[in-house]
Amino acid sequence: GAVVSQHPSWVICKSGTSVKIECRSLDFQATTMFWYRQFPKQSLMLMATSNEGSKATYEQGVEKDKFLINHASLTLSTLTVTSAHPEDSSFYICSAREDSNSPLHFGNGTRLTVT
Amino acid sequence: GIQVEQSPPDLILQEGANSTLRCNFSDSVNNLQWFHQNPWGQLINLFYIPSGTKQNGRLSATTVATERYSLLYISSSQTTDSGVYFCAVRVTSGSRLTFGEGTQLTVNP
Lengths: 115, 109
Description:
Oligomer: heterodimer
Order of helices and strands of chain A: EEEEEEEEEEE
Distance between the termini of chain A: 37 Å
Number of helices of chain B: 0
Strand content of chain A: over 45%
Largest sheet of chain B: 6 strands, mixed
Largest interface: A-B, 21 and 21 residues
Shape of chain B: globular
Largest sheet of chain A: 7 strands, mixed
Strand content of chain B: over 45%
Radius of gyration of chain B: 13 Å
Number of strands of chain A: 11
Number of helices of chain A: 0
Structural class of chain A: mainly beta
Order of helices and strands of chain B: EEEEEEEEEEE
Structural class of chain B: mainly beta
Helix content of chain A: under 10%
């Protein structure tokens, strides 16, 4: 079945530093990847949609300069949290699909803690 | 945008019991998925079911698209079934997947 690999699974960083999270589709080509954020005991909130080779589309309220998304190939998307602050601490999950009619497959998530 | 409501929000079962989780949505959809998020945060894709009925072992799901709801059945529940079950839908004209708030299931031994 379709596998999405996300790394790292957890990361602790200091305020002001940047963190990069990778999302890879291992056995299919992902034309579209999505990045979600999840706070404790809440649902997933879509942050942005990225299509290979084009700029990401950010949801309202998500700072594009803070959450940099790059989708340089059909199997890799990255999310960089720039100048991280403690309020950026959260669970970040990526997902990918092969085409618009395909189901969505999720990575295992990255738990970010900013101290 | 589309509204997705899941019920119940919380459910506690004894091992071996059966349960039904419900997902109501406010607009036509061309994609509906059920996910299980385990205590470690991993989202497991259970069903891709925009309409009809599917079964996978102890789990089955039914979506009645014309009436805008989907049901997830869990039979002979096990402690490993514990976690949060999410329903997510995509409207016909859009591409984003909208999640419900989830049902927190706890199965006690």
